[in-house]
Specification:
mainly alpha, 10 helices, 0% strand
Length: 193
Protein backbone atom coordinates (compact mmCIF):
# COMPACT_ATOMS: atom_id res chain seq x y z
CA UNK A 1 0.00 0.00 0.00
CA UNK A 2 2.83 2.41 0.85
CA UNK A 3 4.47 1.68 -2.46
CA UNK A 4 1.22 2.44 -4.33
CA UNK A 5 0.80 5.75 -2.51
CA UNK A 6 4.41 6.69 -3.21
CA UNK A 7 4.10 5.72 -6.87
CA UNK A 8 0.84 7.68 -7.13
CA UNK A 9 2.51 10.79 -5.66
CA UNK A 10 5.43 10.43 -8.07
CA UNK A 11 2.98 10.06 -10.96
CA UNK A 12 1.00 13.11 -9.79
CA UNK A 13 4.23 15.02 -9.35
CA UNK A 14 5.00 14.53 -13.03
CA UNK A 15 1.62 15.76 -14.30
CA UNK A 16 0.72 19.25 -15.44
CA UNK A 17 -1.65 19.54 -12.44
CA UNK A 18 1.09 19.02 -9.86
CA UNK A 19 1.98 22.72 -9.35
CA UNK A 20 -1.67 23.60 -8.76
CA UNK A 21 -2.05 20.72 -6.27
CA UNK A 22 1.17 21.79 -4.55
CA UNK A 23 -0.10 25.35 -4.22
CA UNK A 24 -3.45 24.19 -2.86
CA UNK A 25 -1.87 21.91 -0.26
CA UNK A 26 0.62 24.62 0.76
CA UNK A 27 -2.19 27.15 1.19
CA UNK A 28 -4.43 24.80 3.16
CA UNK A 29 -1.65 23.51 5.43
CA UNK A 30 -0.96 26.98 6.78
CA UNK A 31 -4.53 27.44 7.96
CA UNK A 32 -6.38 24.16 8.51
CA UNK A 33 -5.08 21.10 6.61
CA UNK A 34 -3.10 18.53 8.66
CA UNK A 35 -0.58 17.33 6.03
CA UNK A 36 2.40 19.48 5.07
CA UNK A 37 3.16 20.24 1.41
CA UNK A 38 6.34 18.17 1.66
CA UNK A 39 4.28 15.07 0.81
CA UNK A 40 3.94 16.45 -2.72
CA UNK A 41 6.97 18.76 -2.89
CA UNK A 42 9.47 15.95 -2.38
CA UNK A 43 8.24 13.68 -5.18
CA UNK A 44 7.76 16.69 -7.48
CA UNK A 45 11.37 17.79 -7.09
CA UNK A 46 12.55 14.20 -7.43
CA UNK A 47 10.48 13.80 -10.62
CA UNK A 48 11.60 17.11 -12.15
CA UNK A 49 14.73 18.36 -10.43
CA UNK A 50 15.22 21.30 -12.80
CA UNK A 51 12.02 22.90 -11.41
CA UNK A 52 13.16 22.86 -7.77
CA UNK A 53 13.21 26.66 -7.52
CA UNK A 54 9.73 27.05 -8.99
CA UNK A 55 8.28 24.40 -6.68
CA UNK A 56 9.86 26.00 -3.62
CA UNK A 57 8.51 29.37 -4.71
CA UNK A 58 5.00 27.95 -5.18
CA UNK A 59 5.14 26.37 -1.72
CA UNK A 60 6.40 29.57 -0.12
CA UNK A 61 3.92 31.96 -1.74
CA UNK A 62 0.91 29.68 -1.30
CA UNK A 63 1.90 28.95 2.28
CA UNK A 64 2.15 32.66 3.12
CA UNK A 65 -1.24 33.28 1.49
CA UNK A 66 -2.63 30.39 3.54
CA UNK A 67 -1.05 31.93 6.63
CA UNK A 68 -3.10 35.08 5.96
CA UNK A 69 -6.19 32.88 5.82
CA UNK A 70 -5.22 31.30 9.16
CA UNK A 71 -4.60 34.78 10.55
CA UNK A 72 -8.07 35.88 9.36
CA UNK A 73 -9.64 32.82 11.00
CA UNK A 74 -7.97 33.80 14.25
CA UNK A 75 -8.81 37.50 13.96
CA UNK A 76 -12.38 37.27 12.67
CA UNK A 77 -13.68 33.79 13.35
CA UNK A 78 -11.77 32.52 16.36
CA UNK A 79 -14.82 31.64 18.45
CA UNK A 80 -16.58 29.80 15.63
CA UNK A 81 -13.94 28.27 13.36
CA UNK A 82 -10.53 28.93 14.95
CA UNK A 83 -11.46 27.32 18.25
CA UNK A 84 -12.68 24.20 16.42
CA UNK A 85 -9.44 23.90 14.47
CA UNK A 86 -7.37 24.27 17.64
CA UNK A 87 -9.55 21.66 19.39
CA UNK A 88 -8.95 19.29 16.48
CA UNK A 89 -5.21 19.62 17.06
CA UNK A 90 -5.56 19.48 20.86
CA UNK A 91 -4.16 22.99 21.30
CA UNK A 92 -6.92 24.67 23.33
CA UNK A 93 -5.69 23.59 26.77
CA UNK A 94 -2.37 25.28 26.18
CA UNK A 95 -3.76 28.59 24.93
CA UNK A 96 -2.93 30.62 28.08
CA UNK A 97 0.67 29.38 28.15
CA UNK A 98 0.97 30.16 24.46
CA UNK A 99 -0.20 33.73 25.11
CA UNK A 100 2.52 34.22 27.75
CA UNK A 101 5.20 32.65 25.57
CA UNK A 102 4.00 34.61 22.56
CA UNK A 103 4.12 37.90 24.44
CA UNK A 104 7.77 37.22 25.21
CA UNK A 105 8.96 35.78 21.88
CA UNK A 106 6.42 37.07 19.32
CA UNK A 107 7.87 37.01 15.81
CA UNK A 108 10.55 34.47 16.73
CA UNK A 109 7.81 32.00 17.58
CA UNK A 110 6.21 32.48 14.18
CA UNK A 111 9.60 32.16 12.50
CA UNK A 112 10.42 28.90 14.29
CA UNK A 113 6.97 27.54 13.53
CA UNK A 114 7.37 28.50 9.87
CA UNK A 115 10.75 26.80 9.62
CA UNK A 116 10.11 23.56 11.50
CA UNK A 117 7.58 20.70 11.36
CA UNK A 118 5.65 22.54 14.09
CA UNK A 119 1.96 22.79 13.09
CA UNK A 120 2.14 26.24 11.50
CA UNK A 121 -1.63 26.58 11.29
CA UNK A 122 -1.80 26.80 15.10
CA UNK A 123 0.50 29.84 15.04
CA UNK A 124 -1.27 31.55 12.15
CA UNK A 125 -4.66 31.25 13.82
CA UNK A 126 -3.21 32.27 17.15
CA UNK A 127 -1.44 35.27 15.59
CA UNK A 128 -4.74 36.55 14.25
CA UNK A 129 -6.54 35.95 17.53
CA UNK A 130 -4.04 38.06 19.52
CA UNK A 131 -3.68 40.71 16.82
CA UNK A 132 0.01 40.17 16.14
CA UNK A 133 1.25 42.85 13.73
CA UNK A 134 0.57 41.95 10.11
CA UNK A 135 3.88 43.33 8.78
CA UNK A 136 6.12 41.31 11.14
CA UNK A 137 3.82 38.31 10.64
CA UNK A 138 4.31 38.60 6.88
CA UNK A 139 8.08 39.03 7.09
CA UNK A 140 8.75 36.10 9.40
CA UNK A 141 6.31 33.92 7.44
CA UNK A 142 8.06 34.66 4.14
CA UNK A 143 11.52 34.16 5.58
CA UNK A 144 10.67 31.07 7.66
CA UNK A 145 8.57 29.29 5.06
CA UNK A 146 10.95 30.30 2.29
CA UNK A 147 13.97 28.92 4.14
CA UNK A 148 12.17 25.67 4.84
CA UNK A 149 10.86 25.00 1.33
CA UNK A 150 13.90 26.30 -0.54
CA UNK A 151 16.26 24.26 1.65
CA UNK A 152 14.28 21.04 1.13
CA UNK A 153 13.99 21.68 -2.62
CA UNK A 154 17.64 22.60 -3.04
CA UNK A 155 18.83 19.51 -1.17
CA UNK A 156 16.61 17.32 -3.33
CA UNK A 157 17.87 19.10 -6.45
CA UNK A 158 21.50 18.79 -5.43
CA UNK A 159 21.38 15.19 -4.16
CA UNK A 160 18.48 13.99 -6.36
CA UNK A 161 19.15 10.37 -7.38
CA UNK A 162 20.75 9.27 -4.08
CA UNK A 163 17.89 10.85 -2.14
CA UNK A 164 15.35 9.15 -4.39
CA UNK A 165 17.08 5.80 -4.00
CA UNK A 166 17.23 6.28 -0.24
CA UNK A 167 13.52 7.15 -0.07
CA UNK A 168 12.48 4.27 -2.33
CA UNK A 169 14.54 1.70 -0.41
CA UNK A 170 13.40 2.98 2.97
CA UNK A 171 9.87 4.15 2.18
CA UNK A 172 8.33 2.65 5.29
CA UNK A 173 11.02 4.15 7.49
CA UNK A 174 10.62 7.54 5.80
CA UNK A 175 6.86 7.54 6.39
CA UNK A 176 7.36 6.58 10.02
CA UNK A 177 9.94 9.36 10.39
CA UNK A 178 7.59 11.83 8.70
CA UNK A 179 4.74 10.79 11.01
CA UNK A 180 6.96 11.05 14.09
CA UNK A 181 8.03 14.56 13.05
CA UNK A 182 4.44 15.60 12.40
CA UNK A 183 3.09 14.16 15.65
CA UNK A 184 6.19 15.37 17.48
CA UNK A 185 5.45 18.90 16.36
CA UNK A 186 2.03 18.70 17.97
CA UNK A 187 3.45 17.16 21.15
CA UNK A 188 6.13 19.84 21.40
CA UNK A 189 3.45 22.49 20.90
CA UNK A 190 1.35 21.03 23.71
CA UNK A 191 4.32 20.65 26.06
CA UNK A 192 5.90 24.04 25.50
CA UNK A 193 2.70 25.98 25.41
Amino acid sequence: MLRKLYDWLLALAATRHAPLALGAISFAESSFFPLPPDVLLIPMVIAKRSAWFLYALICTLASVLGAYFGYAIGALLFQTIGQSILEFYGATDTFARLVAWYDQWGGWGIFLGALTPFPYKVLTIFSGSVGFGLLPFTLVSIIGRGLRFFLVSFLLYHFGPPIRDFIEKRLGLMLILFTVLLVGGFIVAKTLF
